[in-house]
Amino acid sequence: MKSKSSFRTLALTVLATLLLAGCAGGGTSIDESSYVAGDGVVTVIKASERKSAPTISGSSISGSAVRVEVGKVALINVWASWCSPCRAEAPVLEELAMKFPEVQFIGLLTRDSKDSANAFIKRFGITYPTIADDKILLGFRESLPVAAIPTTFLIDSSGKVAARISGEITFSSVSKLLTELMAE
After folding, report:
1. Is residue 9 assigned to a domain?
2. Is 13 a member of any domain?
């Protein structure tokens, strides 16, 4: 009987150790297996139920001052250079930025280095600014938290979160959403 109890204790100890080791996540290594990729689900919030977006301002990774302007519709894209869906959607975002010059586009870099981000920006010809500040991401938890990389937020002209796309965007869906937001 004692050996059964000892085995159970040992098994529980090993299981607890494995679970704790899996949750540690304190390393600085960045790889694609340590993030959640979204499935492209679009969450749209009725105008009457929207909550304020966090203050989105700071220095871009190129050093210029960036701030979301109230009175303008904004698209905020959370990305990282090592993220495959981010690479896939980068040309689409740039095409949208060209189609909608009246919309403010801002990238939010997460879990990445500025050198890698700058190489990504150059490779994909991204013309809109990118801020590297994870505190901004935390501010979205009051409305629609970031649940995946990439995540794209649409902010209405009143500064409220109108929609979130968890995962890779499509040109047609975001184009439609932006057109509707600008018509409000």
Report:
1. no
2. no
- Residues of the domain holding 125: 35-183
For residue 47, how far is the Cα from the chain centroid?
A: 22
Report the CATH number at residue 46: 3.40.30.10
Contacts of 13 (CB under 8 A, 6+ apart): none
Reported pTM: 0.78
Q: Which two tokens mark 176?
A: 């439609």
The 8-class DSSP code of residue 76 comes to: E
* Residue 121 exposure: Cα atoms within 13 Å on the Cβ side: 19
Alpha carbon distance 79, 81 (integer Å): 7
Q: How many domains does the chain have?
A: 1
Q: Is residue 87 part of a domain?
A: yes
Structure tokens at 21: 């080791």
Could you tell me if residue 109 is inside a domain?
yes
Q: What is the predicted pLDDT for the residue at 41? A: 86
What average pLDDT is seen over the chain?
A: 84
Is 90 exceeded by the pLDDT of residue 137? no
**The pLDDT value given to residue 111:** 92
Higher pLDDT pick, 109 / 15: 109
- Band (pLDDT 50/70/90 cuts) for residue 51 is very high
Q: Are 96 and 127 in contact (CB under 8 A)?
A: no
